[in-house]
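Please, structure for the following, as tokens.
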Amino acid sequence: MRGAIPIREGNAKSGSFVLTSINRSALLFELDNRMESRCEHDRELNYVLEGKAQRLDGVVGPAAFGYNPSYRPYSYNPAKAKELLAAAGFANGFEIDFYSPSGNYTKDKEVAQAIVGQLAKVGIRARLLTPEWGVLNEIHTNGKCPICLRGRGTVLDPDNWLYDYFGTGSSKRSLYSNPEFDRLL
């Protein structure tokens, strides 16, 4: 075809991401930050997402202002996670609700199922709940999700969402509070 625009097929990295939001007030114990990164993401999630995703090592991705490429999360260590749970008084684990959308993000329910399986390996028995999106959004916004799979669109300047999730008193989603973080934000 004369004058046709050449089309090239390929993959590109996105500034969007999906995260697991933990509401600290819904937990039965004071969350030790070391427990937040104890799930094995790479192998299972790579399988679920057909190799088209990358692990986010921190709260912002490589496309965002403030990204720190030298940050390294805690390594996957189920024995250490079980030890931390036992020290918190949960040697036999515990049950908790895990909310996820279904059909809102790429393979969101499947990703949530993989995370539920990872949590089970350390004794956390998560009940996967997948209400309709509007219901889930209201539950999450009102701080009623102990654990929730959520996503963010392309994030280049993370200021507003960092405030939404981590600013002291900003929302009921996580109830995180850190005066030093607030000062930096």
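The helical segments are 42-48, 78-87, 108-120, 133-141, 159-166, 179-184. Residues 17-58+93-154 form a domain with the D-Maltodextrin-Binding Protein; domain 2 fold (CATH 3.40.190).
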